[in-house]
Design goal:
YbaK protein; three-stranded antiparallel β-sheet; 5 helices; about 150 residues; alpha/beta; 8 strands
Length: about 150
């Protein structure tokens, strides 16, 4: 697989990572986790939401569901909603099913589910369908600076 804007951004930041690839047949973190034999709790869904109309990334473990009210609270807003697919793709420059907070066209605030960051090594999309990055949690936190909160159930 060729480099993505996500892998390029991590290389520029000097962050070591492993790139895992799989045949993308079904959208979703659960499918990717199974295909790569990674625990779903360590592989995040990268969701694009809007809190009071402002776009943000939400990183939620593949085995949990984003709680939009919790995201709004964490962001200090009143309401949150997932953005439409075309808006997510326009904001990030990535296709849905391949969205990464690394190398996104527009830098968005990042919110991460607390339980996702309980793991020393985490995984998330690399910026292309069928490509998953695995890296140290501390590197993800250093590069993305996420707000950590209880965001999922």
């Amino acid at each position: 697989m060729t480099a993505t804007r996500g892998t390029t951004a991590l290389k520029k930041a000097g962050v070591p990572f492993e790139l895992h690839t799989y045949e993308h047949r079904v959208k979703g973190a659960a499918y990717a986790a199974e295909a790569l034999d990674i625990e779903p709790a360590r592989l995040a869904k990268t969701l694009v939401a809007a809190v009071d109309g402002e776009p943000v990334f939400a990183l939620v473990p593949g085995d949990l569901t984003l709680d939009l009210k919790a995201l709004a609270r964490a962001a200090g807003g009143k309401a949150a909603a997932l953005v439409e697919q075309r808006d997510a793709e326009r904001l990030t420059g990535y296709q849905v099913g391949g969205i990464s907070p690394f190398g996104s066209r527009k830098a968005l605030p990042v919110y991460a589910e607390r339980r996702y960051l309980d793991h020393d090594r985490v995984a998330l999309n690399a910026g292309a369908r069928g490509a998953i990055l695995e890296l140290a949690r501390d590197d993800l936190v250093r590069v993305l600076g996420p707000t950590v909160a209880d965001l999922a159930h």
